[in-house]
Design goal:
Layout: E1 5-10, H1 14-29, E2 34-39, H2 47-55, E3 60-61, H3 66-70, H4 77-84, H5 89-98, E4 103-105, E5 110-113, H6 118-131, E6 135-137, E7 142-147, E8 157-161, E9 165-169, E10 171-174, H7 180-188, E11 197-199, E12 201-205, E13 217-227, E14 230-240, E15 244-246, H8 248-256, H9 258-263, E16 268-273, H10 280-293, H11 309-318, H12 332-343, E17 345-354, E18 360-362, E19 370-371, E20 376-377, E21 383-385, H13 399-412
Parallel strand pairs: 1-2, 1-10, 2-6, 10-21
Antiparallel strand pairs: 3-5, 4-5, 7-8, 8-9, 11-18, 12-15, 12-17, 13-14, 13-16, 14-15, 16-17, 19-20
Amino acid sequence: MGQTHKIIIIGGGAAGFFAAINAAENAKSSSRVVKIQILEASDSVLKKVRISGGGRCNVTHNIFDVRRFCENYPRGSKELLSAMLRFQARDTVDWFLKRGVKIVAEEDGRMFPNTNDSETIVRCFLNEAERLGVQVLINHNVTSITKLSSGSSSGPFHVNVSNKGSMMADSVMITTGSSQHGYRFAKELGHTITDLAPSLFSFKISNHLLSELSGLSFSHADVQLIVGEKCFKDSGPLLITHWGLSGPAILKISAWAAREMKMADYKARLQVNFLGGEGFESVLAMVRKLKEDNLKAQAINIYPERLTKRFWAKVLSNCRVPEDKRWADLTNKELQNISETLFKTEFIVLGKNRYKDEFVECGGVCLKEINFKKMESKICPGLFFAGEVLDIDGITGGFNFQNAWTGAWIAAQSFL
């Protein structure tokens, strides 16, 4: 038997477990002797996996064209392209299927375990880690990482753990997500941390059009965010909340504008087309057709089929059209005002509200300092990274987990 290669993975989340399991399998298939330890600071692992997607775990997204998939990363798309040519969403689906977990797609492309329960993914990881002899150590709060010989191709590293002394490793991997500790470890080992900012957040808005409509959703809205002189556009489902606006359309646009919004102290203008995909002339023609076909009906009772009566009542109120007014009596100016409200209502964004299931951090370890063929540091050989600790973040829909799976899988091929 050869010498034991010791691997310490700091952070017991998605990337950490995926790297550990794949590294252990690789070692087993090549008859290499390894000792793999996952160090988790808290008293439980895989917390984000558990809460993702409302407790269902949005594993990845149903796009198997790598170039198209990588278009969903505001930061890191270029670097991920080569990485995902080696391990992409289809490989993720196959990986879980081989371990008895079927991943299925929903209409919007998001992919979940067919049990619709994140515990399926958690159990898969815990069972695989146990089967392969990966040590999972909770309440192991790492305080510092030291490399003893800066010139060597790998280790040895000293990993210091609070109240537990020092642990030795030949390879160290940082998979701490957006934890400040992970950024500090990377910085102390010579890495640059890019500007950090929240991503995937909803908007705080005060507007009479939204009052009393909390919980109302739109299947497809177009949104345009104006931050200073920059303009961002996106579309998707929209949700009215008691604090403002949320839903995939808002979360996506917040990701693209993450740094600009932070610089603007989360103040911006937001324009919403509640009939997403329709141009103004199309909306106006739709409203005129409603009048033409329903001359005797009251305005409150006839409205575009994609809208609800609650919302329509607010639109009429906003345009100062009495609910009991007959469609036949609506003036061209009133039809114009209704169409403009539906097509482009402007809101003032007053701040952000973190979306508890999907929040990620924009920024992290500078990508120029990472060898993406190995997910290894160019500055400190033997040090590896994967997941959100890097300056990579995706929009909502399973893209951030896929970044974790891809980076972790590549690192697992490179430890030995």
